[in-house]
Amino acid sequence: ILCTAKNAVAEDTRTAHIKVVDKPDAPYDVKLIPGGVDEVRSIMLRVQLPVYTGNAELTDVIVDLNAVVVNMQQSSKLAIDFSNFEKNGTVLLYTISSGILPYTCYAASVRLTNDYGQGAAKTSRIVRTEEAEPTSGPANVSVRDIDATSLLVTWLPVPLASRNGNITAHQVSYSSPHHTSRKRSICYNSKCFLESQQRIPVSEGLSVELRDLQSNTKYRIQVRAINGAGYSSWTSVDHATKDLDGGSSPMPFTPPPGYNILGAAGMKVDETHIPAPTGTEITFAAGPASDENGPVDFYRLLLVDMGRVKNVSKLHPNPPDP
Predict the structure, then answer these.
(1) Quick check: 241 and 147 in contact, CB under 8 A?
(2) Pick from 90, 101, 107, 102: nearest CA to 33
(3) What is the DSSP string of 35-93?
């Protein structure tokens, strides 16, 4: 501001400088970028400064960081000193690593402050951190006998807070003193994990039947979960199969060679599904005498529904009514 005093003889001028200050405007742009120090547990905050910062030096950056954790909203407020930012022209960079969780959605609301106040907020888009290995294994693994050589293994899923990603499959390992460890991978959440190019679909991915085991044998059974980042820890349980003569259900029936399955009208149908309206006739030919290793006392006929033995019948080789 120029101020001039003037009379008939002379004039004199003085200049006064006035600086207009105010609170800063909102940031021009705010972005969250998963990564920085750790792609899973850190987020890079990128803030582009506005044209007008209140004609005063910025002192702090106030960050409201919002996260959706297991279907629950969590919020934390950070006051970051302006000097702690990495500066690249009008762009500020800062890595947030405290309290960041894997496979979690985040959004940030950022305000700039100077000595004269706090400006308006600018909010980022929602981003999600990367997956990490599950921090705990499946819960409540239990084993039930189907028969002397088959077991049903069931378990509960990994708790939501420990999944650290999208569980796509479970893996079951079973071993005994007589068998090295064998593994099966079980689909989960309508997705499938491929192992040896074999798909093993199981209802809801929380159970599996283990067959062709040895009777009267102790097995170590382990279950772990799989997501996009890796494996959880194993959850283990020990279980002994029953003895063949211990009152359990018979072993799965392997029919003699030459057997045939006929529908009620005498037409051959698929042996795994018999759509007979009233009954089914099953015929088979005895195996070679050289394979019998002695006289045959009877054959067993098993009715199996969805992997469960429903009925067992004895068929004698020479019944009175064939």
Answers:
(1) no
(2) 107
(3) -TT-TTT-EEEEEEPPS--TTS-EEEEEEEEEEEETTEEEEEEEEEEGGGSEEETTEEE
Return d(Cα 161, Cα 69) in angstroms, integer: 8
Joined together, the tokens standing for residue 119 give 């400006």
Tokens standing for residue 179: 């068998």
Lowest mean pLDDT across 78-87, 111-120, 267-276: 267-276
Of 62, 177, 165, 151, which is closest to residue 108 (Cα–Cα)? 62
Q: Where are the alpha helices (DSSP H) in the chain?
A: 160-163, 289-292
Q: 39-69: per-residue pLDDT in tens?
A: 678 899 999 999 999 999 999 999 999 987 6
Token duo for residue 94: 């800062």
State phi, psi for 289 to the nearest 5 degrees.
-60, -30
Q: Which amino acid is at 146?
A: I
For strand 218-227 and strand 235-240, is the pairing parallel, antiparallel, or unpaired? antiparallel
Q: Is the pLDDT of residue 167 over 80?
A: yes
Share of the chain above pLDDT 70, in %: 65
Residue 14's identity, in one-letter code, is R
Query: Around 19, how many Cα atoms within 13 Å sit in the side-chain half-sphere?
Result: 7
pTM flag (> 0.70): no
